[in-house]
Inverse folding.
């Protein structure tokens, strides 16, 4: 664990100079490179730590930090219910393809106070922008706000106006909540260092969410080998029924 | 103790699942019904996604039918030939049902369809059961001699159909067409609604085909095992919504519950219990009716599209 931590820190340090246009360097590491989802998993918090290292041409600050965390993408559909002939049924629907199943926007101050609307658009700092970007077709844009609302209440879209804590002028940390229904896969965290309303530094780190144990195996088998999965389920059912009949012989 | 259901993507208390499995197994043990028609609605009300509830209950029906079918088989109370023709029809019905299921799911009308289907099915069966057992109770209270109902003779159009064959254990010489048709229809209903359909199949075999009482339950259980196993397999292939963890918890609960129900059923007053079951069925039907008539708190729903959906 500790070794991995150091290794990650070194990797980030090593990679950081590649972003040459950045005015400041950022070190950005996380507490849990692998988040294991167990059967009794009720959610966990991944803590990301960062340190801003002002370069030669550095803007003096004060710095603000925005942390974006993006999970694996999925396809979604929002449906609107309507009353027709006395019955409540689904009518209009909007499809969203390749939308992150997890998207957290955490900042050290309310976004409106630290960046301009142009930066919000460019860096995808709004859920509405994300919805508009991934929606299929233009005639269902009226459902965007409902999509965002439902994704928020499902814990898939998370916004934290004080989600990033500045420990000093140059060090910060962000606590990223991972819910129990988190999708397996790679989560990418991006830290944007902001000074005078402009992005002056940027770096990324990543962590993996994995459901572990028997549940993970079952879910993977159901997707990768449905024939075997189906047969195994039937055999399990026959076996359980047979065993029940033998144990409690009528 | 919460358990994570990997396909439903939901954490549920394992004792809750064992509990509803046992409760419904107990009820099915008392009355000799499959229990799928109670179990699927319970899962839907719990918040299990409709495709997962329907597909997983098929596996549970296989388990709960197996222990019963074995004891009938040992007594020779299974007409294997008739079972084979029923299953042949049932497999085609199941395939059609799973196909329609996929289309309804993609259209977003699966929940409405399930609500309407269960409302119709449970509403009519609950009403019939309630009237029937109320009548029996009243008769008994009046101490009238029970009138023995005789089955009328063979239904003429069933007799005129071609492809007649001899079903020795059922002592019938009838066409295979109505046998396969009954299997086909029950197969469709089973795949769509997540029920075995035994409570529809048994009356159909008795009243339409005149299958004698001593083989009818065993033969219908044989049909349930085979057709539900095929349905489970097809759901695993097409909708990939069979949750084995969920099904296993329900199986264990219901197989155990059914044994206690069967022995308890011999000591409990049958007709009073039957009225209670009828009321329970009607209550579930009303719950479905409310679900499709009452305007929901949130008219918008969000669904993550899984494999094979668009």
């Amino acid at each position: 664990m500790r070794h991995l931590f150091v290794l990650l820190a070194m990797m980030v340090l090593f990679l950081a100079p590649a972003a040459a246009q950045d005015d400041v360097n950022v070190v950005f590491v996380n507490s849990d490179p692998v988040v294991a989802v167990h059967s009794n998993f009720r959610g966990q918090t991944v803590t990301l730590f960062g340190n801003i290292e002002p370069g030669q041409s550095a803007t003096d600050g004060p710095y603000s930090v925005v942390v974006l965390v993006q999970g694996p993408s999925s396809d979604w559909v929002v449906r609107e219910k309507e009353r027709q002939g006395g019955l409540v049924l689904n009518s209009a629907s909007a499809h969203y393809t390749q939308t992150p199943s997890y998207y957290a926007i955490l900042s050290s101050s309310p976004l409106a106070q630290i960046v301009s609307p142009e930066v919000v658009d460019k860096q995808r700092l709004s859920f509405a922008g994300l919805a508009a970007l991934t929606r299929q077709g233009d005639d269902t844009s009226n459902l965007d706000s409902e999509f965002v609302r439902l994704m928020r209440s499902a814990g898939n879209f998370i916004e934290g106006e004080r989600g990033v804590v500045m420990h000093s002028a140059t060090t910060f940390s962000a606590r990223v909540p991972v819910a129990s229904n988190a999708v397996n896969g790679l989560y990418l965290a991006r830290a944007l260092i902001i000074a005078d309303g402009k992005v002056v530094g940027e770096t990324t780190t990543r962590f993996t969410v994995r459901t572990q144990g028997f549940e993970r195996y079952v879910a993977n088998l159901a997707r990768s080998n449905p024939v075997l999965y189906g047969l195994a389920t039937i055999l399990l059912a026959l076996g359980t029924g047979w065993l029940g009949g033998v144990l409690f012989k009528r | 103790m919460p358990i994570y259901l990997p396909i439903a993507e939901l954490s549920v208390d394992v004792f809750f699942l064992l509990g509803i499995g046992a409760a419904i197994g107990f009820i099915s043990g008392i009355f000799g019904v499959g229990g799928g028609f109670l179990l699927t609605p319970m899962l839907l009300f719990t918040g299990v996604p409709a495709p997962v509830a329907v597909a997983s209950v098929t596996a549970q029906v296989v388990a709960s039918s197996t222990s019963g079918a074995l004891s009938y088989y040992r007594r020779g109370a299974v007409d294997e030939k008739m079972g084979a023709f029923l299953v042949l029809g049932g497999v085609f019905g199941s395939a059609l049902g799973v196909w329609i299921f996929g289309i309804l799911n993609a259209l977003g009308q699966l929940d409405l369809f399930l609500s309407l289907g269960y409302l119709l099915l449970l509403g009519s069966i609950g009403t019939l059961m309630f009237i029937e057992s109320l009548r029996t109770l009243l008769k008994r209270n009046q101490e009238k001699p029970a009138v023995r109902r005789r089955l009328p003779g063979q239904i003429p159009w069933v007799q005129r159909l071609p492809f007649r064959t001899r079903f020795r254990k059922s002592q019938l010489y009838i066409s295979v067409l109505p046998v396969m048709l009954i299997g086909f229809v029950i197969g469709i209903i089973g795949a769509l609604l997540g029920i075995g359909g035994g409570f529809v199949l048994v009356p159909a075999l008795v009243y339409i085909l005149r299958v004698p009482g001593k083989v009818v339950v065993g033969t219908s259980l044989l049909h349930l095992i085979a057709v539900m196993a095929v349905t489970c397999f097809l759901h695993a292939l097409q909708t990939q919504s069979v949750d084995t963890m969920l099904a296993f918890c329900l199986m264990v609960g219901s197989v155990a519950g059914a044994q206690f129900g069967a022995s308890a059923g011999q000591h409990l007053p049958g007709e009073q219990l039957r009225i209670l079951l009828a009321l329970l069925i009607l209550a579930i039907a009303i719950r479905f009716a409310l679900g499709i008539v009452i305007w929901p708190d949130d008219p918008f729903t969000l669904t993550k599209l899984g494999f094979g959906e668009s």
Residues 10-20 of chain A have pLDDT under 50 and may be disordered. Residues 213-250 of chain A form one domain. The first helix of chain A runs from residue 2 to 15. Chain A has two domains: 2-210, 213-250.
